[in-house]
Amino acid sequence: MLATVLTRGGHAGQRYVVTGPEALTPADKVSAIAAATGRELRFTELTDAQARRQWRAEGWPEEGFAFLLDMWATVPESVAEVTTTVERVVGRPPRTFAAWATAHADAFGRGVP
């Protein structure tokens, strides 16, 4: 889409909200990657305490934990809105996440146990 906006006129002063064609949860995205790679994957949401324990074990700085937890807890509902911007500007619908995951399956280690 960016190439279209930069190379074709009529976009000066415009503000575009660009999304894919569907709103997906993290679990939906993991399922799409699993299907694309042929791997058995699952998404498990952590409690705040579990997340803190994991971040601590990974060596993350404790002073950032509250920010991270608050950021994930206060995601605005607007992130689930789907727009038609890409199709209107480019003339074709945006690619689905599943199609993107399939095209990039090797980056996820297709078939790696």
UniProtKB/TrEMBL annotation:
Report the superkingdom from the record: Bacteria
**UniProt cross-references to PANTHER family, sorted A to Z:** PRESTALK A DIFFERENTIATION PROTEIN A, PTHR43162
> Any coiled-coil ranges, and where?
none
Q: What is this protein called?
A: Hydroxylase
Sorted alphabetically, which InterPro entries does this protein's record hold? Ergot_Alk_Oxidoreductase, NAD(P)-bd_dom_sf
Q: Which organism is it from?
A: Streptomyces caledonius
